[in-house]
Write a structure and sequence with these properties.
Number of strands: 6
Strand order of the largest sheet: 1-2-3-4-6-5
Structural class: alpha/beta
Largest sheet: 6 strands, mixed
Helix content: over 70%
Oligomer: single chain
Radius of gyration: 65 Å
Number of domains: 4
Strand content: 5-15%
Distance between the termini: 156 Å
């Protein structure tokens, strides 16, 4: 019950009480008339109050309905708010997760950048170290190169099949210009062949060689004792860096070679000097040499022909053995391999190859006692060889 309803009830009770009290106290007609007016007035006021009460009650009901609607709307709003709060909480949690992932991603990127930077630095340091090692190795090769070339030339010139008279820059010929200091000289047909071991620390070996050719030609043209073919010796690894190996400058020809080329070059020079010497011999000596060489060539050809025929016949025999019985041939092959290990001794071959006296002794031991070879077989072999030589 509202306060308005309580107030209205009190007013009604007071009005009824006053009516009863007035009816009990009617002293006279005039007073009764006044009381009637008062009662009518009060009743009218009561009616007004009722009307007002009804109006207020209707308004109250409308307000109650509106309040109920407002409460329902509020509940809906609160529900939406709660849902929004839940969504917001989820979004904040997701955002925090994304921020954490982003932070981890940035940390990974930073770590990757640091690792890349460290790797680049390591590679750079490795390249610098490798370059330094390569330069040190190159310097070592170049430093050892000159000594190695001179030592090789000295050894080669002492070989029995070469026998060149040689000179170093510390022991030059008496008739040689002292202002020239080539690394190595050999006496060749009245002149001197120059071998110069080149040592370079220049970045461009080709530029260095080009410059050395010009300077060497300028020095060497002062002497008519220099053979026009000059050899510049560089390490084997350095030859690969050069695009040009032969130069023609003034009256000289320069050849850039490696240490491995010294032996065949000296052998070629020795052959040239032999031919030149042969031209200066008297006719009879020259004829004797030519005849000896011709006989040697014929002997070599006959030996080669005989070896070829013997090899061919041996192959035919082996082929027939294998065709006759494969299993037997396999056993024979195995046994021949075992015997082949002891067939020839490398030491024995070297002994005979280096000594003509030893060869003659071996031939004599074969001839005495007389070899048991039938005369018919010897004649057959001679006929075959003769037919092959025709």
């Amino acid at each position: 019950m509202t306060g308005f309803e309580i107030t209205l009830g009190i007013v009604v009770v007071l009005a009824l009480g006053a009516t009863v009290f007035l009816q009990m106290k009617r002293p006279n007609t005039a007073d009764s008339h006044d009381w009637s007016k008062e009662i009518a007035k009060l009743e009218k006021e009561v009616e007004i109050e009722k009307a007002e009460h009804n109006k207020l009650a209707g308004a109250n009901k409308q307000m109650y309905a509106e309040l109920a609607q407002a409460k329902a709307k509020l509940q809906s709003i609160e529900k939406e708010r709660d849902n929004a709060q839940t969504q917001l909480t989820k979004m904040e949690a997701k955002r925090e997760q994304q921020e954490k992932e982003h932070t981890r991603g940035l940390e990974k990127i930073d770590a990757a950048e640091r690792a890349l930077k460290e790797e680049r630095q390591r590679v750079l340091e490795s390249e610098v170290e490798a370059k330094q090692v390569a330069e040190e190795e190159r310097d070592r090769l170049w430093n050892e190169h000159e000594v190695s070339v001179i030592a090789t030339l000295v050894d080669l010139c002492k070989q029995p099949h070469l026998q060149f008279k040689s000179y170093s820059n510390n022991n030059l010929p008496d008739d040689f210009d002292g202002s020239l200091k080539p690394d190595f000289l050999i006496d060749f047909l009245g002149q001197y062949v120059v071998f110069d071991a080149k040592v370079s620390k220049a970045q461009s070996l080709q530029t260095y060689i080009d410059d050395q050719v010009k300077k060497t030609a300028e020095k060497m043209k002062k002497s008519d004792k220099i053979y026009p073919h000059i050899f510049l010796v560089v390490p084997t690894e350095a030859v690969r860096e050069l695009k040009k190996l032969v130069y023609a400058k003034d009256k000289f020809y320069f050849y850039v070679i490696s240490r491995e080329a010294l032996s065949p070059i000296l052998a070629s020079l020795k052959r040239i000097s032999t031919y030149e010497l042969a031209e200066t011999l008297d006719p009879q000596k020259r004829e004797n040499i030519i005849n000896a060489l011709a006989e040697m060539q014929t002997q070599i050809n006959m030996t080669s022909a005989t070896s070829l025929l013997t090899t061919k016949r041996g192959i035919e025999v082996l082929s027939r053995i294998q065709q006759t019985d494969p299993e037997l041939a396999a056993e024979v092959e195995q046994k021949s391999k075992e015997k082949a290990l002891n067939a020839y001794s490398p030491t024995e071959i070297k002994r005979l190859a280096n000594s003509l006296t030893a060869q003659n002794a071996e031939v004599s031991s074969i001839a005495a006692p007389k070899a048991s070879i039938k005369k018919s077989m010897i004649e057959a072999a001679q006929n075959v060889i003769s037919q092959r030589l025709l």
